[in-house]
Design goal:
By secondary structure, this protein is of the alpha/beta class. It has a single domain, classed as Response regulator (Rossmann fold), CATH 3.40.50. The protein contains 5 helices and 5 strands; from the N terminus they run αβαβαβαββα. Helix 2 crosses helix 5. The termini are close together.
Amino acid sequence: MAIAAFLLMSKSGPAAAAILIVEDEPLVRIEMASSIKDAGFTAYEAGNADEAIRILEQHSEIRLIFTDIHMPGSMDGLRLAHYVRGRWPPVKIIVTSGMVKVRSEDMPEGALFVEKPYRPEHVTDRVREMVAA
């Protein structure tokens, strides 16, 4: 069944699945959004948690957020991840950082941590798996 779900999430399939990339570094955000789009998903971009929350409120098709921990604004990416888990429980969460290693007990339930530097292809593979689950 997991293989069938993965195949459904191929380039031709995930039109209804959208991914929100939350990253304050524009070049990193643009590269990740490009990788997500190349994988066949719709990509939304936010530079901080406040912007991310506004986008989530407007786009119910978002199925996963990919957030950096360190960014400006009212909360960091880890706090955003917990906020999203509480307000939008079905949304999957991937957290990333190159400065901090996050313990699993500090993450929201079901969230995944990806350490920077990462390969965009590695992240899109995790996105496919999590959205298909």
